[in-house]
Amino acid sequence: MSEFTSGPDDRELLSRHAAGDRDAFAELVRRHRDRLWRVALRTLGNPDDAADALQDALLSAYRAAGGFRGEAAVTTWLHRIVVNACLDLARRRTSRPTVPLDETAAEARPAPDTLGARETAGEVLAALRGLPIEQAAAIVLVDIEGYPVADVADMLQVPVGTVKSRCSRGRARLAETLHHLDDRNPGNGGRVQTSDSSLPPPEQSAPSSEEPP
Known about the structure:
Elements: H1 10-18, H2 24-44, H3 47-64, H4 74-92, H5 103-108, H6 117-129, H7 133-144, H8 149-156, H9 160-177, H10 202-205
């Protein structure tokens, strides 16, 4: 999760933006948009919601750049804002119905040897959407994006133990929903895995990397 080293680094770009450079923030977004988009989509499970949350997050980051104190990496700061935007949006839209997996049909249907990662990833993402949003966010950041628990605790601004607890509870719930995938992915150690092939391309679904208004 290191920051870019070619050209101005992330901190310098953020400082330039805060000082009035109109191009600096657009460059920062261009560097990190794809990963921020993946986090938003995997956390919320809906492209429209993810796009809204990411747009809100980028606007918040654009406005809050002057208050960045450098206590964490810029990428950590950006991820924190994106995840918080996802959490806020999810809480506002708790009435949105989810589409549960048809577990009976999944168990009755023999899994072909050629079953691709795309189908498996789609089921994982659908199951993630059924979790409490705090658990889903922790699992996305730790298990899917691969951030250390300590970094995720910083992003979410909760204790390390809380992140571990959310991951543990979320994994237990996912294991119940996705137990039919065990034979497809042996030896994954209980960590959630998915594939980028199941995600809409960010250039089609994510907000533009142009400077926010």
